[in-house]
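Sorry, explain these tokens?

___
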Amino acid sequence: MLHSTIQQNDYSSLIALNPILNYNSTKKVKNVILLIGDGMGFSYTTGLRYFNHESQKGLMKPTIFDRYFVGSQSTYSLDTQCNITDSAAAGTALSTGYKTYNGALGLNIDKQTVPTVLEYAKFRGKSTGLVGTSQINHATLAAFAAHVESRDQYDQIADDYLDERIEGKQKIDVMLGGGTSYFHRKDRNLIEEFVLHQFGYVTNLQELTTNKNERLLGLFAPIELPKMIDRDPNVPSLSQMTKAALERLKQNPNGFFLLVEGSQIDWAGHDNDIVGAMSEVKDFEATFRTAVHFALNRDDTIVIATADHSTGGMSIDRNGNYKWNPSVIKSITATPFVIATRLHETKDITTLMDYIHFTLNDDDLKTIQSTLEMGVEDTRQTLIDIINHYSSTGWTTKGHTGEDVPIYAYGLNRHLFSGRIENSDIAKILFEIID
């Protein structure tokens, strides 16, 4: 498999590959906060508006996303076999300005290394950060800091986070998310190496809030973090990780580039799990609010929130009911996976009452009971199907879908992201306006 390392003495030549737009007269930005709700299409943010509405009556209040809506972007890749993107190709378009084939990270369609906006920010003397709820070497995050032929090269990507340099400096200053299994391996202990390179290392919320290192590696789970609704209080939320990253990155007088991914909106969409999906969208909503709050009263910062694609073909209502029921979703206190796991531990159907606070009919209870003689996955899928039925949530697929996705922006130059644009235009604009 191809592995392209950017050497410290050749990054300048890669800058010549930047896609160019005519924004030379536009005021440059010092700080960029780019948030990607992985899989978060329009139905998810529309669903959030319904979810936040406390009554069946009256006008719905706008969400924080509604207030800063500016446009939409395409999501298709240039894959010759598929016309629906994966996260790697979409992430690469958003990070480099080049559409590419599915699975590629930081490479164009000809498998050539192309610079990312994170790397360009580091080249310009800025601090940089990656924050997510998946493993931090997962596709979307890695698209901003890795150059490999396949998104599945997780160990190689983790190695590159430490080994690659821009102008002699490590390219990422703050990394917060999951992925301990990829950073502490039999063949290499990257955690120890990061510490030797003057990084702090934290594993829980308390350590995150008390650590004072300006450069920081935070790994809070072996692979992905639990969904927000399932998260232990000592595992940080996406918003808390974002705040911690901003506190460190803002110390650089040259500014910063921060990428934040709400990774598991997508994962819930793949599962057709509306409980997990709304939990993760709420976490992303709080994170966008944190980013906007940072940018308030500043004239040097742009905050952009968008998605890489949509997932699951989520629909608000199903089967012509004309009534979506978010109250059902709100009455559930854990994801179907956690509930199913607990049911298999207890073998007691009354365990449902600890997590599901709406009335299930006898047939549903019998169906769930019958799955306890099968596997956890059977019980989980049955719970997902029942919850989708009671909440009247529809899905068309367990994969990605090809529709355009929203763009929200606040701060300096937000107008440049308005209207309908290509996903690759976001990176092209950022290359031009980063100071």
Notes: The mean pLDDT is 94. Residues 274-295 form the longest helix (22 residues). The chain is about 35% helix and 15% strand. The radius of gyration is 22 Å.
